[in-house]
Every structure is written in structure tokens, then in C-alpha cells.
Amino acid sequence: MSWFSIPPDPGAVKQGFIPQPIGVIKGPYLPEGVKHDAEKVRVDLLDSEWLEGVGKVLTFGAKKYAPDNWRGGIHYRRLLGACLRHVFAFLRGEDNDPESGISHILHASCCLMFLYWFTVHRKDLDDRYKTRTLD
């Protein structure tokens, strides 16, 4: 980042003064701080509209049930069923959930967020059908 020369007096800009680069500052006084975050997760790449939308679904659920009610546990198949119902409604041409007025896609996203959290933290809720192998 370059620093520019300062006009000699406030009226100089009006008289056509053009700031000129005078060099790059090096050393301990950097014009911008250093942040070693190249290997960090790039959460700045997440879409804010989608995140806020999922937040709307969570707000609706907090009012209907209780804040963080879902963390009490929901079996995988119930979440998958709810997610698929929202996806199927969307596929049939219904954009928004009739009860909440919020996008079916956002509701499905919320279900998948819950399901992911449970696959990491609550494996005891895994009730998926598993085929048996004959030994």
C-alpha cells in the first residue's frame, strides 16, 4: 500500500494538486495488520441470504417449540422425512411452506443442518434402515 503526499494547504486540491506516491512503508509500522488465517475455514464465502433464511426458519421453530429444542434430539429418519417433504413440495411448484411462509428450500436446509449435527454428536439417534448381510 502506498502513502501519498499531502497537499501543502487545503486550497491546493482545488487548484489542481494531484497527490503523488511517496513510497511504501516498511518495517514495524505497517499500514495494514497481519493476520495468519490462510488455513482457516473461509466462512466469508457463505451466502448471507441463505444463512439469514435458515435463521428465519430457526426463529420460527424457536417460537413454535422452544429455542434450541432440536438439540434435545430428533431421529435421523424423522429429519430426512421432513427434509424430503419440503423438497417434494418445492418440486411440485410450492415455493414457500404454508405454515411459516418461508422457503421450502430453507426449511430443507435447516433439516440437513440438524441431521449433520446429529451425525457428529448424537449417533445414538441413527435409526436408518440397514440391510443385513448374510454371513
Please work out how many helical segments DSSP would assign.
Answer: 4
How widely separated are the two ends? Answer: 69 Å
Order of helices and strands: EHEHHH
| Overall form | elongated
Number of strands: 2
Q: How would you describe the oligomerization state of the chains in this entry?
A: single chain
Structure description:
With 135 residues, the protein is mainly α. The protein has two domains: 34 residues, no CATH class; 83 residues. It has four helices and two strands; from the N terminus they run βαβααα. It has a two-stranded antiparallel sheet. It is elongated. It starts with a strand and ends in a 14-residue tail after the last helix.
Layout of secondary structure:
Blueprint (H helix, E strand, L loop, with lengths): L1 E3 L6 H4 L6 E4 L23 H17 L11 H16 L12 H18 L14
